[in-house]
Amino acid sequence: MQDLSTTPGGLRLSEIVPQGRWHGGKEVRVSSCCMQPEQCQPGDMFVARDDDELQTQESISMALDRGATSILSERIFPNSVPQFIVRDVREAFGKVCHALSGNPCQAMRTIGITGSFGKSVTQQLLLGIFAEAKVHTSSMHATGPAPTTRSPRTLDIQPSPAAIASWLAKSRNHGATHALLEASSRSLATRQFSGMSLDAAIITNIRRKHIEWHGSLANYHHAKARILQYLKPGGFAVMNADDPASRALLAKLDMPVLTFGLKNPAELSATLVERHRSEQTFLLDAGDESIAIRTRIIGDAHIYNCLAAAGVALTLGFDPSQIVRGIESIKSIRTKLQRIECGQEFGTFIDASYSPEALGNALKTLQEVTEGRLRVVLGVDHRVSGEARARTGQLLERFTDESVLTSSRFDRKMALNSAHEILDGFDRPSQGHLMPDRAKAICWALSQAEPGDIVLLAGGRPSPGPDQVQLSDEDIARYWIQHADDIGHCPWNPA
Hints:
alpha/beta, Protein-Tyrosine Phosphatase, Chain A, 10-stranded mixed β-sheet, 16 helices
């Protein structure tokens, strides 16, 4: 982060991080800071992460050689330049980054969204509501900032305090009054949101995910809860009253919280009126007021996301009619029970689910609206454990009439072993089929569908097409449906 200070002569760190102390000289005003030694420029403050003593000292030497004039760290190093010592260097770095950017959060309404499932969808719904209200909004996906648009584009970067602060400042300077930020458990655990200040924090749910990276379920829960530390004075949380881990966290909180749910008592609830293959209608209940909402996206999971988005919008003072129109304006979300309509007489859905919980939610929803048979083409995923794969097999046998397992882009032998672990969950393994070529499996499942049936394409990754062009499940499904009368020319015809 270079030369972003809005204060002539630089900033006083003792005012930004009062708990810190200077060592090795008088206080130095800071105009720029950098965490990567190879990127340091003359006059920078170098941020020393104390991961490894030898490696850290080598990084400091490189930074000083490149012109760094001070150090931010958690301990004193044997160097002659002034050092500002803090308790948590990552938290301090975030505060410095935002201060150097002019603290853009103070000039905007900022909403952070985290959770095991539903972050992206909830963000899309809020973007729809804000667009209906003509609110200039910027959004950041869990992997990085996105342009000001109703469909956030994922950038292939991991957010950092410097990147987030810079993006917020640019958004503010371009007239954005609201900012939506997705926060993954990893970004929260590594303090990438340090320095942020939020008007609202949404926790959609806290389930069992990413345990290998976090080391324990308790660490994962702690990472998710960290988003609440970034609330502004007077800020509020929006939490799921039906989620056990969220309820346990609620009991420990001393802050304004709006709860939502379908089963347990909550400030914001919903009653399903009707659900069909192409849409669902529910009543959103807020106190004495009920609002009818009709969505083209179906399932209880989507209702939960609608409640979370509506809870933030209502608390921020948006009109109920804007909330309804905004939610209803989101007709489809890619790979989230995405419906493919090409005039066929059977339903075709695409869902990126690979975990047993998310897949189970999709299967329950589709079984409810299926008039005929439910077939699933499931990509075997290396990210789930053997126990979870067996659970997946149980779900497939319980909710589907026929299942086809396909390999991923990873090692075929690994995929075959994983597929057999899924089949181990079946009491009747003959109900499950193994067809490694995903494109052929999709075409086979579609060819078996009759009027009233539903085909779910789940957990897919791009498949090689003609000339090795990577094709999505949607590409393949649309091609097959549109050329069903001339199936002999389909390049993935399994016959």
